[in-house]
Amino acid sequence: MRLFSVFILGLLLTGCLTEKPSVTNDPTQAPPRTELSQDSKIFLGNRLFSEKTCITCHAIDSKHKAPSVVEIMQVYKAHDADIVAFLKGHAKPIVDTTTSQVAIMQDNIDGFLKKITDEELDAIATYMMHVDELSKKQ
Ligand code: HEC
Question: Is the Cβ atom of 50 under 6 angstroms away from ligand 1?
C-alpha cells in the first residue's frame, strides 16, 4: 500500500514537472516589445497616411490642396529636416511658407495630429522618406 502511494506521489510530481512549460507560455504575459523593421514601418506608414486623412490634401507626386509628398521630401532631404519634429509642432514649416497654407497644416498639428502616437508618426515619416523608392518599384 505504501509503495502504491509513493508511486502515485511520483506520478503527481512528474505531472507537475511536465506541466511547467505551459507556465512560461502564459498568454497573459505580453511578449517583449520589439522595434518595427523599416519595411514594416513603411507599410504601416503607408496605411496611416490614408487612414489619418493626410492623403486627402497631400497627393504622392502632384500638387492638390497641399504640396505633394515628393515635393515635401525634396525639401526635407535637402535641409536634412525632421518630419516628426514638424508634425509634433516642434519645428517651423519649410516647404510652403504662405501664411494661409501654413495655417491649414498648423490646424492639423494643433488638432488630430495630437492623437497620433509617436510610433505612428515615426512610421508616417519613414513612409514619406521612402515614397520615391516605392513609386520607382511600381
Ligand atoms: C486639410 C489639408 C491637410 C491635411 C489633412 C494634412 N495636411 Fe500636411 N499640409 C497641408 C498644407 C496646406 C501644407 C503646406 C503648408 C506647410 O508647408 O506647412 C502642409 C504641409 C505639410 C508638411 C510640410 C511642412 C513644411 O515643413 O512646410 C508635412 C510634412 C505635412 N504636411 C505632413 C502631413 C501629414 C503626415 C498629414 C497627415 C497626418 C497631413 N500633412 C495632413 C495640408 C494638409
Answer: no
pTM (whole model) above 0.85:
no
| CATH architecture under which domain 38-137 falls | Orthogonal Bundle (1.10)
User: How many angstroms separate the CA atoms of 66 and 95, rounded?
Assistant: 10
Closest CA to 108 of 63, 45, 66, 71: 66
Which residue, judged by its Cα, is nearest atom 7 of ligand 1? 105
Q: Distance, CA 100 to ligand 1 centroid (Å)?
A: 12
Q: Is 95 in the pocket of ligand 1 (CB under 6 A)?
A: yes
Average pLDDT over residues 16-20: 48
Cell numbers for 31, please give them.
Answer: 511578449
- Band the pLDDT of 16: cuts 50, 70, 90: very low
